[in-house]
């Protein structure tokens, strides 16, 4: 990983002094990540000391290396919390699912992976595809203030959309029957499908989008730097290595933009 980080750092061009001022004004790059019980290409897990481990943590550390500074992590329960912190300048960079609502609040660079949102249901349900959920009385849970719950609300006009603070709480609600389905990225649902006997991931999807690097608005040098970093990270193999280290051998890296 160190060799790949060095390759990514060497490929990042631009005004490093200006980028450092905009991305590390506190002396460190403050990186927003989202935790969950299971690691995915987006979610991290935390150790006993609260330190995050996973793909986005690896990418955040690599970005800090390109600026010759350290990293500091803001660990949130959902991507809505990270978006709020980024917009307020409480953190310097994050990796977030892209949608039009977020584009109004933060600046996006390239995506490192693409995904589609669907739902996990219990084996006792009669749902087989996403469109089956669109009827009165069906309760679909999703993380509050996220691209997925916004997409679910647009797609499911008759179902009741239930905002949940975290993945862990949503899974508990699904197990106990307080919701009928849990909406999340397909790749993110796989660990929970394996854990909950008989559960199914529904056919179809609410939307497709990318998970991209993002910075606060009005930081032009920061945006130039993270764009260059992320594209070099894809080209050099850094993103591929981060995914592989997390056991996500089948997860594809997003193409160059």
Radius of gyration: 18 Å
Cα separation of the termini:
23 Å
Helix/strand order, N-terminal first:
HHEEEHEHEHEEHEHEHEEHH
**Helical residue percent?**
25-40%
Question: Strand fraction band?
Answer: 25-35%
Provide the structure class.
Answer: alpha/beta
- Stretches where pLDDT is under 50 for at least 5 consecutive residues are 1-11
Mean pLDDT: 94
User: Helical stretch count?
Assistant: 10
The main pleated sheet reads as: 11 strands, mixed
Q: What sort of overall outline do the alpha carbons produce when their principal axes are compared? A: elongated
Number of strands: 11
Spell out the blueprint of helices and strands.
Blueprint: H1 2-11, H2 16-23, E1 28-35, E2 43-46, E3 52-53, H3 55-66, E4 70-76, H4 79-87, E5 93-97, H5 100-103, E6 106-121, E7 139-143, H6 147-155, E8 160-164, H7 167-176, E9 181-185, H8 186-195, E10 200-201, E11 208-216, H9 220-236, H10 238-245
Parallel strand pairs: 1-2, 1-4, 1-5, 7-8, 7-9
Antiparallel strand pairs: 2-3, 5-11, 6-9, 6-10, 6-11
Helix pairs in contact: 1-3, 1-9, 2-9, 3-10
């Amino acid at each position: 990983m160190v060799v790949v980080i060095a390759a990514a750092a060497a490929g990042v061009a631009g005004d490093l002094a200006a980028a450092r001022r905009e991305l590390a004004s506190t002396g460190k790059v403050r990186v927003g990540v989202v935790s969950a019980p299971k690691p995915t290409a987006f979610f991290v897990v935390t150790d006993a000391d609260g330190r995050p481990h996973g793909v986005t943590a690896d990418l955040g550390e690599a970005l800090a290396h390109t600026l010759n500074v350290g990293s500091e992590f803001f660990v949130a329960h959902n991507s809505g919390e990270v978006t709020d912190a980024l917009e307020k300048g409480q953190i310097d960079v994050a990796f977030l699912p892209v949608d039009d609502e977020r584009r109004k609040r933060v600046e996006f660079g390239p995506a490192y992976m693409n995904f589609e949102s669907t739902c996990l249901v219990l084996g006792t349900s009669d749902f087989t595809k996403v469109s089956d959920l669109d009827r009165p009385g069906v309760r679909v849970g999703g993380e509050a203030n996220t691209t997925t719950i916004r997409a679910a609300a647009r797609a499911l006009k008759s179902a009741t959309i239930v905002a949940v603070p975290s993945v862990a709480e949503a899974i508990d609600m699904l197990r106990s029957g307080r919701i009928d389905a849990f909406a999340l990225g397909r790749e993110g649902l796989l660990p929970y499908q394996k854990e909950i006997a008989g559960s199914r991931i529904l056919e179809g999807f609410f939307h497709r989008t990318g998970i991209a690097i993002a910075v606060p608005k009005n930081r032009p040098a920061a945006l130039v730097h993270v764009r260059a970093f992320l594209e070099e990270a894809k080209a050099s193999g850094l993103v591929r290595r981060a995914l592989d280290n997390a056991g996500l051998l089948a997860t594809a890296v997003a193409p160059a933009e």
